[in-house]
Specification:
The chain has eleven helices and ten strands. The protein is an alpha/beta fold and 258 residues long. It is globular, with a radius of gyration of 19 Å. It binds hexanoyl-coenzyme A. The site of hexanoyl-coenzyme A has 22 residues, from strand 6 and helix 4. It holds the Pfam family ECH_1.
Length: 258
Amino acid sequence: TQYSCIIVEQDGPVGVIRLNRPEALNALGQQITQELIHALNGFDTNNDIGAIVITGSDKVFAAGADIKQFQGRTMANMIKEDTLDWSSKIRAVRKPMIAAVNGYALGGGCELAMMCDIIYAGEKALFGQPEINLGIIPGAGGTQRLVKAIGKSKAMEICLTGSVKLNAQEALAAGLVSAVYPVDKVLPQSIKTAKIIASKGQIAAALTKSAINQSFEVPLEAGLLYERRLFQTAFGTEDRKEGVDAFVNKRVAKFSHL
Ligand code: HXC
């Protein structure tokens, strides 16, 4: 497939998507989000891929939605065209996704990172939700996922001022990101983790992702029941037989994703 705003590569069992719209700081307009969804769906349905990494450039992960495309829009066409529907499609990806963030992750860029399952940040990363400066509010999870990641007071401060941003160390301390690396190490480290994940059974990985995400949706008792059922489900897989047999026989498991 020919893409114009992203670069798609495969590194062994890892799918890598690089946002590549430097002239607009990777602003998430129509074209780039369509391409992103297309590439993600390709990887999600590709048996050879076990995990996905989304990254930008050294300077910017993504500076948000494409503000220029907001000009002339009305409430009516925002509703009818539901331009943020791409974010629901990203949420539906079953394979684990890692955001490798360098530079700005603002507005929709911060939200895109939060749609991923793990975030690694480069030392110069900067996370923020400046939408209020445009007279709007975050629209793809900024008021929801950010609260869950870093708590109410910090999320309010970031979204209400539009100017408070988290640098990499602050994002680490707040729990928004898992680790901070030098700029040139973020992508390699992300791919390294993605390869570890990809070495597991894909079904177990998908069930794990689904169970952890369920914790955001339901009360504890219902979440525990969901987890129990998925745990039991895992016993129906070839990978479970292989994993347990490998342990007992002191060898490395070789998962078939069945
Ligand atoms: C469209 C953008 C853009 C954006 C930057 N550009 N961000 N175009 N949408 N979000 C363009 C600029 O217009 C400029 O192009 C070029 O990229 C370089 O940007 P500069 O501002 O000159 O760069 P710099 O001085 O380094 O400042 C970087 C920046 C700033 C601090 C990141 O660009 C900025 O504040 N951008 C907007 C951030 C933002 O408000 N994001 C939230 C968007 S709303 P030209 O050709 O004009 O020179 C949103 C809603 C979420 O995300 C909804 C869910 C997706």
